[in-house]
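so i finally got all the pieces together for this one. its two components total, 265 residues if u count the protein bits. some of the lines might not be protein, just check the labels. i wanna see the whole assembly predicted at once instead of chain by chain like last time, that was a mess tbh
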Amino acid sequence: MSLAIPALGNEVAAYSVAVASCLVTALTIGWFSRRERVNADAAIGIVLVGSMAWGFVALRIYDHAGRPHGSPGGWDFYLLGDVERLSRAAMWSGLCISAAVVVTLAVLAKEILFYCMDPELAEVSGVRAGFVHYLLMLLLALVIVVGMPLTGFLLITALLVLPGATALVLSQRLGTVIAISLVVSLVGIVCGLALRAGPAKLQSGPAMVLVLVAQFVLAYGWSVVRRRRA
Amino acid sequence: MSELFTNPVYRNATITACALGVACALLSVLVVIRR
């Protein structure tokens, strides 16, 4: 886009366009998944490969035009992330968006939880199911955009699944599940960053994901042992 | 480990990543309980 509109060549504009395109992608997936002709998994698959293919083609076009606004970075940065290249704009947007996500979830906790546990019952009970559905898609898209420089867009999904999955293996109480999920997520992130900052200089994304996977395996093993003893 | 809090690059990344981690932890609970 910066080739067609040179004003989009700076970092903040490029980041804003990335956020906007992720929101459009999320709304597209949300729209497809609410229609019965295409299920959610197929919609995610179609939009994901379409976006990735367009990314490869757009990068090639940008290279061919002589990179007028500088190097966009290698594919490993987009796929796996690199904390050492986290810009100040990315840091502040990460903090603001994370805070906005937490506040939104806190304010609409009742409606969102009801919708996630039983969408049909929630809808007949007066919960605005369409609004909550698209809101969740938007929140997930925003978190994926701000998490991309840290873990890459391939591995950010691990942060959106593993803490909750690990917590659900250990407990069925909502308050406990949320508390465990927070601890698991923060342990994974801090240990992953420590491995990046350490002498081995591991990539931050894979390091965080491996710590999260290790916690899930331990939690699952512990839950199996506990069930056998009971 | 101390470099996370002394090196400005890692300190900024740690603060951002922890904020993101809290948001992701809450969203991940919704993702896994969603039917």
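The helical segments of chain B are 3-6, 8-33.
The interface with chain A takes residues 1, 3-4, 7, 9-10, 12-35 of chain B (CB under 8 Å).
anyway lmk what u think
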